[in-house]
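quick q for whoever's on today - can somebody do inverse folding on this one?? i tried earlier but teh output was garbage lol. tokens:
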């Protein structure tokens, strides 16, 4: 394969990995680990485990959805347009999953098993739950228990506080709604009938906003002691970002900006976590 051919293939593989959430979740996870006092090597291993897991999820999504993406003419999907073969993205997904097993278990068996459970949960979404009324559940489980996996990788294997797990689950539900709303029309055309498709775009957008704000409220109010002024400011920022994303979502169209606003809210929440005592002795 010539260098000219390899470059477009590499770009298309990167696009098929769902780069925005992949990079965001990896960066947030490393920040959480480092903020909780993880040694440098542990933080690197956390990043490797999360990155390979996210890559496997993104590539498996485009592998499983190749036929649907082609049917609706998704120009942003390299497999659906034929720029990547199904075999190529399938191989990438399975290779990333294998690397994820190794990287996860390098964090210790407790952290490794919890993280692998979150990745397996995300795969269940791709493999069929996305078309059921339980479409939100893999997001809630994976985002909710990801902080626990990171905490268990720290020295002494502490656990994540209950309110962190709850906030993560709420963020997952919000991310699901923000991610699906732009694709409701295409999904319906190809037989996908998840919860957002059943309740409609308006109800999903409102529910997404409630979940995102509730996650931030939990992170502000649940930790011991009185909320700091910085936490109140973070809540105001998160509410503002959520309102902006919701207005865009309710305006119709297929903009991905509401999903990026949801990622921005998650970034605010990660800052709140880094500034709080979110791990407790196991």
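ok took a stab at it. sequence:
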């Amino acid at each position: 394969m010539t260098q000219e051919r390899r470059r477009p293939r590499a770009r298309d593989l990167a696009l098929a990995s769902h780069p925005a959430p992949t990079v965001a979740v990896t960066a947030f996870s490393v920040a959480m680990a480092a903020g909780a006092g993880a040694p440098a090597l542990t933080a690197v291993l956390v990043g490797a485990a999360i990155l390979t897991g996210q890559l496997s999820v993104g590539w498996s999504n485009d592998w499983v959805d190749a036929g649907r993406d082609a049917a609706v003419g998704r120009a942003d999907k390299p497999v659906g347009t034929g720029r990547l073969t199904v075999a190529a993205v399938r191989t990438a997904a399975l290779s990333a999953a294998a690397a994820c097993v190794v990287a996860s278990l390098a964090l210790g068996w407790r952290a490794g098993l919890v993280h692998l459970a979150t990745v397996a949960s995300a795969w269940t979404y791709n493999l069929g739950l996305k078309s059921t009324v339980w479409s939100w559940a893999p997001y809630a489980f994976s985002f909710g228990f990801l902080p626990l996996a990171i905490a268990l990788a720290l020295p002494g294997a502490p656990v994540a506080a209950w309110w962190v797990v709850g906030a993560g689950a709420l963020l997952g539900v919000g991310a699901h709604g923000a991610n699906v709303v732009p694709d409701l029309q295409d999904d319906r055309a190809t037989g996908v009938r998840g919860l957002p498709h059943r309740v409609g775009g308006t109800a999903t957008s409102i529910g997404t906003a409630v979940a995102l704000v509730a996650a931030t409220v939990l992170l502000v109010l649940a930790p011991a002691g009185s909320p700091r002024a910085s936490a109140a400011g973070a809540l105001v920022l998160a509410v503002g970002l959520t309102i902006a994303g919701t207005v865009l979502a309710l305006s119709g169209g297929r903009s991905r900006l509401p999903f990026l606003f949801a990622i921005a809210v998650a970034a605010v929440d990660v800052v709140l976590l880094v500034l709080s005592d979110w791990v407790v002795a196991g």
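fwiw The mean pLDDT is 93. also The chain has one domain: 3-280. so keep that in mind when u check it
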